Amino acid sequence: MSKSAIRQFCLGLSLLSLPFLVTPVFAHGEKALEPFIRTRTIQWFDVQWSTAAIQVNDALTVTGKFHVTEDWPVGVPKPDAAFLNISAPGPVMIRTERYLNGQPWINSAALKPGADYDFKVVLKARVPGRYHIHPFFNLKDAGPVMGPGQWVTIGGNADDFVNQISTIQGELIDMETFGLLNAGLWHGAWMAVGLAWLLWWLRRPLFMPRYRQVKAGQEQGLVTVQDRTIGKVILIAVPILVLSASEIAQHLYPNAIPLQASLDRIEPLAQEVNTTVHVKVLRAEYSVTDRSMKMTAQVNNQTDQPIRLSEFSTASLRFLNDDVAQFQPPADSLIVKDSLHVQDNPEIAAGQSTTIHFAATDANWKNEKLDGLINDADSRIGGLLIFYNPAGKRSIAAISAPVLPVFN
């Protein structure tokens, strides 16, 4: 066997083996978004899932709150049109309800920087499996900003899924199949027309003969009388077909509601962030070798109780101070116990301002690709600092600051 044949055999064998080397991917691309966008646009907190295991047709409710940061990145368009959705690997669930600040919410909405909102999304399980589910915002001209995620297991049989609704005429329809045949026929018809038109021209000599004909000044012969006649027929027949079909559809479904494209106006909640505790970051450094964000901050406690720093949250990554562990959630991959260390762990007295030094240290800065912040043209970080008083009452302050990289 010649060397060339061996090389071709090896190449073919490699290509054939590629499908067996591909492993499933469970992420949603959230790490690909620049860190300054993930940390300084939508800051999520109190996100919860009603359950981690359901059956087909069962409901799953996702609730939570978010703060729209005051220090919105200059390079990101303002959130004048934002759409909250749920990220899942395909149509494994359907969304049945969605609320913003308790109001039913259908369209996109304008968000106010510095404001707080809460949301609720109700889903219905459709396809059995184990999926990672995130709430996320689609920001116009900026892209998706993911919230925290959770694994959800759906049991049962996909064939048992029911998705029926009653129309205004009282007709019960199955949303899984309604209009499917009609959509298939229309797609097939337009594909047939387009393919026939393409083949009509492909049956003739193509590029070089036609080029030579043009160069010879004989371009009039490229389009025949028959070509022009067929073109005129298509030009007239297509609009007639579309308008006729539209009239028939309006006659059959006189009370159809079109897809909504307006912009909802929903006022923010009463402020929870930056109300009783205000924080000014005096210095922020990211230690590349330690994978640690170190900050010096002045905390102004305007509550009537002493408080202590319990948590630093940014881009769905939560660093917890174990010295204030009694009010903290259980750890998971993005909730890191004993990763927030406050120097001397001071208690900030009521009505006082105190300068504190703290460090959020964990490999997740690298794993979540947040350490790329130092490579951005906008090397600023944002996040939420969460404080508790001895009675367990929470105060939240939003922070933002430029980050200085430290390489040793």
TrEMBL record:
Q: What are the top taxonomic ranks of the organism?
A: Bacteria, Pseudomonadati, Pseudomonadota, Gammaproteobacteria, Methylococcales
Write out the transmembrane intervals: 184-202
By its UniProt entry, which InterPro entries does this protein fall under? NH3_CH4_mOase_B, NH3_CH4_mOase_suB_C, NH3_CH4_mOase_suB_hlx_hairpin, NH3_CH4_mOase_suB_N
**One Pfam family this chain carries?**
Monooxygenase_B
Q: Which UniProt keywords apply?
A: Membrane, Monooxygenase, Oxidoreductase, Transmembrane, Transmembrane helix
The molecular function GO annotations come to:
monooxygenase activity
Lineage, top-rank taxon, reads: Bacteria
Q: What is this protein called?
A: Methane monooxygenase/ammonia monooxygenase subunit B
* Source species of the chain: Methylomonas paludis
